[in-house]
Design brief:
Thiol Ester Dehydrase, Chain A, 10 strands, Mitochondrial_HTD2, 2 domains, 288 residues
Length: 288
């Protein structure tokens, strides 16, 4: 297990302020492919608005094979600080939509390391890295996002899941999801996410000691955002904030749930045995 004293946090903090600028043409193919993977009936074309939480299809890392870690993630030490803790997870995030992103239109994203923090918890040493992404089209800010990444030690044996919090049963809308391996593989491919816990069952079970393939955190957030689009199709999201509490796996169905209070929405996933997996809060743009 890693020791806080052995981690040079002052060195890692020198990454704060590091910036990266990338371009992407927001190809219609990726949006069309995700729509098919999610069994969406409507076809998305160039010029259409990109649905909320679909921005993760774009501006993806494409490391060389030699710059990819054993777990399938890009090796750290480039844009991200060289975290000495090997297990990396996207724990939470939030984004604000100033104006919709348009499919098939060139966009620019500026990413900045905002913070690097070391903490100790019940599960051991944790390193938190917060990255801010600002995405523009025609020079105008469209999307401002914060991504919270957590690094921790690799487990040495199977351990029970975190204690579960009972999920509310008073949803205004809900939809059961079957997270089969095909869906997980397609989402990994579309986001160029090489993390093997999402498609390599042997690695997920025998190296990272999960009980099965793990459903991507961003995919869960996307499914929650889709629930909103399906039930309030004319609504425009202003902010979306999510937090992972307990992993979901491909061996069990789960349910995406939502409840509305005016322009504020509470969203959550409910596992097959009744526990919260992810929560999200959405603020809709007030109608003019």
């Amino acid at each position: 297990m890693s020791d806080n004293n052995a981690i040079d946090i002052d060195f890692l903090k020198t990454w704060i302020g590091k910036e990266r600028i990338r371009q992407d043409d927001l190809s219609p193919f990726k949006a069309q492919a995700l729509a098919a993977a999610l069994d969406r009936q409507s076809s998305l074309q160039a010029g259409d608005v990109l649905p909320p939480a679909w921005q993760w299809l774009y501006f993806v890392d494409t490391p060389l094979a030699s710059e990819t870690g054993v777990d399938g993630h890009p090796k750290t030490g480039g844009f991200l600080p060289p975290a000495p803790l090997p297990r990396r997870m996207w724990a939470a995030g939030k984004f604000e939509i100033s104006r919709p992103l348009i499919i098939g239109k060139s966009a620019e994203q500026t990413s900045t390391i905002k913070s690097v923090d070391l903490k100790s918890g019940k599960s051991g040493t944790l390193l938190f890295v917060t990255v801010e992404h600002n995405t523009r089209q025609d020079g105008e800010l469209c999307l401002s996002e914060q991504q919270n990444i957590v690094y921790r030690d690799m487990p040495t044996a199977a351990a029970p899941l975190p204690a579960g919090e009972a999920a509310a049963l008073d949803a205004d809308w809900q939809k059961e999801i079957t997270p089969d391996p095909v869906l997980l593989f397609r989402y990994s491919a579309l986001t160029y996410n090489g993390h093997r816990i999402h498609y390599d069952r042997d690695y997920a079970v025998n190296t990272e000691f999960y009980p099965a393939l793990v459903v991507h955190g961003p995919l869960l957030a996307t499914l929650l955002a889709e629930l909103v689009s399906q039930n309030i199709p004319q609504a425009q999201m202003e902010t979306f904030q999510f937090r992972a509490q307990r992993p979901s796996f491909d061996i069990d169905k789960f349910t995406v749930c939502g409840k509305r209070d005016g322009n504020s929405l509470s969203l959550w996933t409910r596992s097959h045995d009744g526990f919260i997996g992810m929560t999200a809060q959405v603020q809709l743009r007030a109608e003019k």
